[in-house]
């Protein structure tokens, strides 16, 4: 795009979960480099001290933005042009229950934040929070664009639209980027093309968050689906090495196996993909997981990591550490620029289905490409989810809709219908499913308001 | 309906699978009582001797019809006004593989003809047969109404429409009738109403064959859903007694359990319902099955039963036995009368979804009520499949569409996508699923033409 | 239906527009003959004196119901099991503007209450009234079944659903009955079948109110579409005689002409049908109208008729006239009986499209057959509107949706978009259309609250 | 897009209508500048001499392509990577009938090639030609991308898909470009921004060809809809001067009037827009047309223009004139480059609706933006056609579908249903409509094969 008119924009960005010690710093970093944007970032967090800490850190990040922590959501959100939502629903204690309680019943989850028993319990405590947030946006900044980063992504975005149908919200996830990088690796290894840029790797994306599929891909005139086949043939056991204590990496063996079986490229990390499949496929037990080249992420690790990030926050505030700039790999600030009219580009996004995926239900939150431009996020027609994958995907897509309904009406019977038909609950009898569900509810009841627990 | 004009009709009914020793005799019985119908029944069967036997037996059945066996489908079908299809795809040897081979892998099936590994293998050998039959109808009697009784019902009906889209075909199944009788029992026990007639028990039916659900039911001003709740409360362990060697009965415990969990009335026998649920629910192992008050039907029993029916056929032909008349409980002849304009009534039927169930895919064969009248089968808007049940139902509905596509294109890779995501295959790893699939294909390859086996 | 259990029902029917001197008396008549129904009819009317008069007349009608006039809608509607709405939106002075003001611009309307400039203006004053009524129902008797008789039918029913989406409302119109009688005439004349009953003349109905089409029709085994062709061929100039001052009759020439052109049976009276077609077809000028065998109904006639009905009301109250019983030809009481579970039958009805007509927009109020049974009105899949007719029908269907939106938001610019694209406004330039619209608004502004006039 | 890999492509482009003296030369011009494309252009035309002439002229155009005329469509199309279709259906004698015969009945058409009586007659003779062409593509180059330029656009593209559903065809039209230029003028006049490039004027396009609407538009951060309002307010009588003998220009008064009435930007030239509206709006008579600032294009002018182009062809062949290069303003070659993977961009295109416009029928050919990239044309979700415009648009959209059906089945009764309900036929009685239709058929019957004329 030939930018004839150089325009600068002054905006207000409200950050819900503004005490974050991760995403928030990446945003600060990216904003510090956006030399055509000016304004304020208002930080709102139920942990006000954390927001205050980020007020301090934000000031250190450089750039054209000022950072203010607010105790009142009204102040934080009024007149916001953009709202970013990135929260932890509950604490890691609740996540510990989500992820590890099912292990007693033989259910192993690699992430536990999207689908499976953990994903559903997390959803049940997130939905009331998002109900509140949607109300804030409706009341204080109904015209703002809202970017969600919280998981379970589909459930969060759907809740926002259910509560405030006129909301201009979308959800962002960088899982697809990883697959684009895998294509770049294949281009390098098999075609000698180095440094292929992600933006030049064009993919057609269809599916739901963390179970997204690529049905067409190209790098200029090179068909990347053909290349991918060649790549898999050369790497029958996946690519790269994976160590058991590597909790986020994978060898892409699950992704390769799914391609072999279903003929399309699954576009998330293996840890996510495995959770959408029948429980005996990749997550039967920890040994099976390792054999497929990835690991279960223990919540104990997340707790340790949080402690490290708290220390880093303290160091940043005290000056013991300097604010680090880098390549965040995130697109949020570019999306903001596009929505202001300063750019226009196509990327993947999570929004309710208005027809972009004809064989998923209208209204379900789906992930496809969209054109970002001034005040517009227009999905591209992504085409049908590939036939063989569809029956698996619909189980989750329908159960997510059921869960949102259950959460909004605080109906645990309805929620259990989603729970007991989840693919990872396959191994349970009805009675076991009920017992596990009840135990997980009891464990996390402090964050389940209004459910009558 | 006030029948002012008494009309008599002369028609030709073609019976594909006309050597049948079950359905065919019921049809003869019902036709013998239809005093306003005259004409010919043409019997076509790949076992011509069996068709000839029924030519003899038909002559003994009384009534206004003549019975002729034909060796050529062209002769049998030309000028037919109605076509009835009721075949056995393969022999009981193939069915033995369908039902019992999966047991080696821990998969138990109560019927094995609709869903699960057995249902899918049966589908793969039925689809080429129905492809041929649809071609016959297109070529010899394109205006005929076609009634299908063969299982897997949805797959058979879908294949007919795929091959000859203008076909006027529908599928009939009496499973819903059984639930209406259960309502009649409840009316008797709880309200003292004796002999409630099935036609007065109005039900709204939505779903797919053998996994049909009743969302509204009444007997005059009595709400039968409320009554059903009361009935279940009084019978926490189901109704009636079930003995292990009772291979077709059940205590309705599965049906009651599903109502408790999903809030709607499942309207098939427990043996069918269990096969649509996760494998660990009702079919975990033979002990679990018995505990839920039903039995696995062994194919050895079917073989014995067939021998008895063959003997009966011989006895009927030789005059050692007399043709028995009774109440068949079937609606086929009434449907024929309605399509001729002699009656009009509402009953349940399997046809492609044109919108009667908004939350199932268009084109999938679904079961709902329809108005039968002169040259018309008009589905009633049945409403959405209840939320909680939908994710289970879609797994099968989508896999059936995939299987039909796989069968018509003889694509075993595609068929395996349906196979490995079937709910009863839950307990298998991908490799085990492949091994079982291959073994079942090998066992039945004589009836799998064109698949490259 | 074999009514084993003889049940009697005590119900409350609320009548909005209960001062009516037409429909209300028919209802009284029909209720007086329903020996299995008991209860109260509560009469509510903005003309309380008229409601009081009907309280008196109702008492004279005999039967098991008591009649009470209420000044408060709350009292009238609370605990109602059924609500009947039959009102005159405004007075005949407003209708005089609706029908006759457009004549200055060369637009002639035979009825002026459904479509055309008159229909749209009538809609604009009816929508706020129905907004209020829908609110009453939501607040006082949300579970009641609501039967609408007011025109414009589609607009009234749509408004009820827009304001209170959970409403159980439907609209009834007897125009289709007239076409069934025409079939009966043809059966008599061409086949010698006398006294064919309407209920035995089965029709498939698809379209929108007053522009409904019959795509399949039979009397037992007789195809009535074929018979209709024969009938038309024999009556090239229509059937029956029509005199200029016969304001409601017609010779069915329009209906026959539409059949010849479009190949399907238009199922309303010619006066209604003509208004959905391009202005130059049947309503070009009064001479053209007469040539097609029908008349424009002047509002002066309606005023005279009203005076006669007022006199009749006075006579009934004073005892100068006795309450007359007859065959009303209406189905309302039968529908009530069916909804109570005392009967079950199929008839035509106006409800929002949930898929029963695939090629009309979802949500548009459409007219098709439906099965009436205990607490249920289930539309039958009516099939597509015939191709050639569809483009005409969509003009009105879309404009009705636009008009309801315009009425609810009191947006006259939006309303004008429907007005200027109406088929009867064909002959106007944009400026003339605007002038006519403004004049009609000014004429009727006393009944257009909130529009800023 | 950062083109790292410089790729050159050798392709075969087949040109149906390759004797063209307009589009063909523009293509030659654009191809001569595409320095990354090489190959052959095969010219096929029923006028072989004309194709031969272009073989000569093509050689003069420079660049990397060779030009060959073929007498056999098989040779021309075999192995083609791209097919361009740009034909004249019949001669200008037929078009003379299309455009001017209706004038006898008071119907004036400014173009007469898309809609109105002329558009429908042109469709009826084009459909059989496109039926043939679709067959060629299916048989000789089923994988080729097919670009259509012939009018009536929607009808041509729909016919291709009806005959060969797997075709990869789309239709291109530059009418939207004109509106983008109008925005550029407004940017210059009102904001002082000179030389705004069309690619930087981002528009969201929804509708059908020649009746396309822009619902969102921006130039970087400038909202062009707001700007357009301002522009219209400043130019109440349109922009620019129009002389009666200026047959292609206009003052945009129709466009401005439609904006005022419907609140969205109509995106074609006024000559096209007027033909979709009721006949009395802009085309009542020649005086009205002039008053709205445009002209009726007489076919006599087209004939004269053709003579000039024939002369130019002769001059080019003889060397009396040199091949002229310029800015064609066409996108075809860029689209070809994108489909080869050499570029990726968003532009407007005509393809069957798969959901990109939710309130137009699925399958109707619609015009929206699409992303062009390697082997892909993915429509963007364009959103609903604005409410007020929809009823007008559906009349044409449905009539186009009806016309294609009528053309493929050679069913003139069906075609007449579209004809008599067209908005420009408003002024006719049914009998007049029939007479005009018959006269136009008779006039052009040499090009109406198989219709039984």
TrEMBL record, chains A, B, C, D:
Q: Where is this site: Increases basicity of active site Tyr?
A: 113
Signal peptide (residue range):
none
Cofactor section: Mn(2+); NAD(+)
Q: Which keywords belong to this entry?
A: Carbohydrate metabolism, Cobalt, Glycosidase, Hydrolase, Iron, Manganese, Metal-binding, NAD, Nickel
Quote the subunit structure annotation.
Answer: Homotetramer.
Q: Which family does it belong to?
A: Belongs to the glycosyl hydrolase 4 family.
Protein name (record)? Alpha-glucosidase/alpha-galactosidase
